[in-house]
Amino acid sequence: MLSRRKDKKRRLKIKIYLIMFLLIIGFTGVFMRLFNLHVVKNQALASRAEKQHQKTIILEGERGTILDRNGKILAANLDVPSMYASPVSVKDQAAASKKISLATGTEYNILKNKMKSGKKSGKNFVWLKRRIDPAKVEEVKGLGIEGIGLIMESQRFYPKGNLLSNVLGFAGLDNNGLEGLELRYDKYLRGDKRWQVLEKDALGKTIFPKDRKYTTPQRGKDIALTIDEVIQYISERELDLALERTSAKSGSIIVMDPRNGEILAMAVRPTFDPNHTDSYQPSDLRNRAITDPYEPGSTLKTLVASAAIEEGLVTPDELIYCENGSFNIGGRVLHDHEKHGLLPFKDVIKVSSNIGTAKVGMRLGEERLYKYIRAFGLGEKTDIDLSGESIGIVREPGSWTVKSLPSISIGQEVAATPIQLITAVAAIANGGWLMRPHLVDEIRDQEGNIVFKSAPEVIRRVVSFDTAREMIKILTRVTERGGTGEKAVISGYSVAGKTGTAQKKAAGSRGYSAEYFVSSFIGFVPSQDPRLIILVVIDEPEGVSWGGSIAAPVFKNVAEEILNYLAIPQENREGILMVSRENGQPGSINEIR
Amino acid sequence: MRLWLATLIILMVFLYVWTHIDIINRGYEIEGLLARKKELEKANKVLTIEISSLTSLDRIEKRAKNELGLSKPEPGQVIIIKTNRSPKGGCIAC
Questions:
Q1: Which positions 233-272 of A are in contact with B (Cβ < 8 Å)?
Q2: Which of these CATH numbers, 3.90.1310.10, 3.40.640.10, 3.40.50.300, 3.30.230.70, describes A78-157?
Q3: Superfamily assignment of A229-565 in CATH?
Q4: Residues in chain B within 8 Å Cβ distance of A561
Q5: Which helix (H) or strand (E) holds A156?
Q6: B43 contacts in A (CB within 8 Å)?
Q7: Are the beta carbons of A406 and A329 closer than 8 angstroms?
Q8: Which of B42, B53, B83 is nearest residue A580 as measured by Cβ atoms?
Q9: Which residue from A187, A252, A265, A436 could staple onto A289, CB 3.0 to 4.6 Å apart?
């Protein structure tokens, strides 16, 4: 009995020890697992959990909008989908590539190669097609291929097509400015990137982050230009018509407010559509109005005449002998296109006599002519707010030959860009001040606060007010009967201007071509109180090449329509009362006659 | 007394759980509304750019000429007089 009890007790003890042993083993295992999870694998698991419960999204700040002076959109951003692939997750790459190729229009081989090389290098992400055409989005969404997805990306749009494109430039795939204003003002237009961490629940749905401040990415700043869409359109349309009419190689028209240097239009041909830059040559993207210097020809006579009057070397009524159309001066035989004898200096400019102007240039001498040409801004950048501006060509007198003085006096041996020339002549129109030309009126942040506002900037005074007044009278005669700029005259307004017909350098020789010309006209209106100055440059027109025949009519068409659009009152029509009635409403035509 | 205390504690627990669930639900609602707002903003922007594109002067002029038979006024048909009102196009002609 006693032995049975002892035996029972011993077996119970064994059982207890066995359970204790098992418990110890079990707890040791649990403890070791806990140690492993909480100490050894702590960081890796925490990061894995974070990935499962948190979603980090990169929000890219939208690029700022570019507007014209009246708030019309010229460039803006839209979100469009881009397609990506996780190559290791795509089961049948060939079939997937075929489907995507049909839906997006991307070449089959390109898609297949991207996925193949991505899989080979173990990549989890490759772009297949960025910025898909919005019209194809629904078709792409319906493909439902495993391992293929869509991400929204911001894309730049230019809703006006090629209007102002050579000035606006364009932005690249990553929303960075590559040309024109997009490049020059990239630091303002670009938005800031922000990272936002969102929490997900067990089903992967996003939970609003109650403990975190929800921040939106900083949008780029908006830029309002001095450009007027209507004036730009008129200029581009007339330039297109002129190039079509003359079969010219290229051309440009600049419209500026001479009082403050604001550029109202800058039309350049050839041009491009910034929405499809791939289909154009690099030369089409160039803004020739600021990058391409040319010999200005007779339009430079305005600067020579201003310098001579300012220095008191000639008066408008002084008679100059024009040698009946042919004259050897400085070892070079100059010709006028019509024979003239004695002409008052004001008529030397009116008929654009090379001989008469060269004689006045000789009076100025090398140093003074050079000083004035430089003072008018030739040979230096105008500092317009665009990248890639050329300084042109103005050699120092030390390197001039005996022929240089008469040649430069008539606009040869010197080269200026259209923007330099219009800035220089605007100094005559506004009473003697050389102004800095500019395109940006103001820059605003996303709340609409103005962070930059442009103001008229005077570079220097070039000639006195009196000289400028005299010059305006002389240049007004150019568009009167018998002047070379007759075709620039606009009914109801007095126009001041100057024609230019510059021979181009002959290829492969030191002389000038008898075949290729640059025809130009620069004018301002109304001449006594100029609101607009317009430069028209037509490069290599076919047939008749005179600036008065080719460029002056283009000036007339552009200026006439702009004056109408801006409602600038007519000035010299007899019998027209040019003031409103007391209530501010204009009287009827019958009343004002 | 004990019964009252127990009931109060249970009610407070229910209240806590209810508010917690409500906050989560409101979070989903806010998230949904933000997504909707973003969608509407995007649609608005698309329409703005479309308007901008459709009001291109080149397009309007062609339609005015070809479809409506309109033409530019002849010289003399428009007489511009000086008024005290601000002219079109901002301050260019001020």
A1: 233, 237, 257, 262, 264
A2: 3.90.1310.10
A3: DD-peptidase/beta-lactamase superfamily (3.40.710.10)
A4: 72
A5: strand A148-157
A6: none
A7: yes
A8: B83
A9: A252
Interface check for A73 against chain B (CB to CB < 8 A): the answer is yes
Report, as an integer, the average pLDDT of A172-193.
89
User: Residue B43: helix, strand or coil by DSSP?
Assistant: helix
A75 touching B, CB under 8 A?
Answer: no
Q: Is A292 on the interface with B (CB under 8 A)?
A: no
Q: Which tokens hold the place of A539?
A: 């490069």
Q: Where do the structural domains in chain A lie, given as residue ranges?
A: 78-157, 229-565
Interface of A with B in 530-549 (CB under 8 A): 531-532
- On the question of a cis peptide bond just before residue A526, with omega within 30 degrees of 0, the verdict is yes
A530-583: per-residue pLDDT in tens?
Answer: 999 999 999 999 887 788 889 999 999 999 999 999 999 887 544 344 444 444
Q: Please report which confidence band the pLDDT of residue A54 belongs to, taking 50, 70 and 90 as the band edges.
A: low
B79/A579 CB distance under 8 A: no
Spatial distance between the Cα atoms of A309 and A291, rounded to a whole number of angstroms: 31
- Radius of gyration from C-alpha coordinates of chain A: 37
Contact A491 B75 (CB under 8 A): yes
Q: For A419-424, what is the mean pLDDT? A: 98
Catalytic residues of A: 298
Which 3 state secondary structure label does DSSP give B78? Answer: coil
Element (DSSP H or E) covering residue A435: strand A433-435
Neighboring chain B residues of A578 at a CB cutoff of 8 Å: 81-82
Domain extent at residue B8: 1-94
CB contact under 8 A, A564 and B42: no
Query: Touching check for A561 and chain B: CB below 8 Å?
Result: yes
Q: Which of A129-143, A298-312, B28-42 has the lowest mean pLDDT?
A: A129-143
pLDDT score for A548: 82
Domain count, chain B: 1
Residues of B in contact with A553 (CB under 8 A): none
pLDDT tens-digit profile of A358-388?
A: 999 999 999 999 999 999 999 999 999 999 9
Give backbone dihedrals phi and psi of A268, rounded to 5 degrees, phi first.
Answer: -135, 135
